[in-house]
Write the structure tokens for this entry.
Amino acid sequence: MNTDVLVPTLPESVSDATLVAWHKQPGESVRKDENLVDLETDKVVLEVPAPENGLLIKIHHSTGATVNSGDILAVIKQGAEEASPVQPEQATVGTTPQPELATQTDGSPPLSPAVRRLVSEMNINPTSVTGSGKDGRITKSDVLEFLHKQETGTDDKTVVLESNEVPATPVAAQQVEKPTTGTTTLPDVRPEQRVPMTRLRARIAERLIQAQQNSATLTTFNEVNLAKILELRNQYKATFEKQHDIKLGFMAFFIKASIQALKKFPIINASVDGQDIIYHGYYDIGIAVSSDRGLVVPVLRDADQMDFAGTEKSIAAFAAKAREGKLTLDDLTGGTFTITNGGVFGSLLSTPILNPPQSAILGMHATNERPVVENGEVVVRPIMNLALSYDHRVIDGREAVQFLVAVKNNLEDPTRLLLNV
């Protein structure tokens, strides 16, 4: 009996998905709930598990194809425990026959059609690649990892992928023919690689342009002395980690300081809907997280009701899910205010772009020791630059500046966070 593998029901706001990668090829056995294929929407990556144990006998859509809810992705023959050779008419993508796995002459495991095509395009000797698949079989991930490890210039026809955005099917670099002098051929230089945008990157671009075009964005700056935060953290971080099994970072302090300031200036926590301003009586804080797929903003819901340990654990969980591509649409939906930390990459100052329909975003930056004047004396203190970008259509400069000063005061005197003053 055969079972169809279908595209799952996509979220209401997502019209279709792009097939990113197959984890199984025709002729391979699969286990129930084993991930068969990754589908990328403009917000999240969805894993499609095998509905039954059996043998993958047919693939309907190749990598890069656009699919909709309910489309048939593949066919599984139930009950087959051992992978067996698949006839060309069985292993198909649409109506195009898929060639059998090619057995290498040296007796090493066969290559799947996708891997064989990839090593051919990249002019790679398969024996140079270490396989991590079943029985030592080389997977597409093995080939991509091999390419990453190559040094520039070691092979004129080998493309070194330097971008975090790895194409579903890498395209060989276009070589530019150079003129010859006598019998000496000048080496190929200036290689290029054309890589299509991922759906997430395209969505990010769309939202950034939307934010720039549909808001009157200004940014106000301030600086904060983090000496007391550092002292408090150093004093209790070992005890905190032992008791709560999570490290005490800086983000929890900034979230708490921001929420307390948002309560004083609710317009900063508001959003625009047409000609209306919506004041939110809750505090769902978006935390910008960098992942291999791009920048994502998971949301801490009701962050004002979390303690420091709960906040840090939620942030760590989101970071892990972002790295693994496990963030769900619900994780990324909503948010009333966003915090982004460019300081982890060394940024000293930036102007964050709004996350529509929110009206403000707080930017953190690197902390550096600087000379400052205190009580008429020059002393060295750990200073961080803060930036608040805001929509001037609904937020006046006075509220924006006062909000940022309130965040600064809360951080420079953490006792305020305890006493709520």
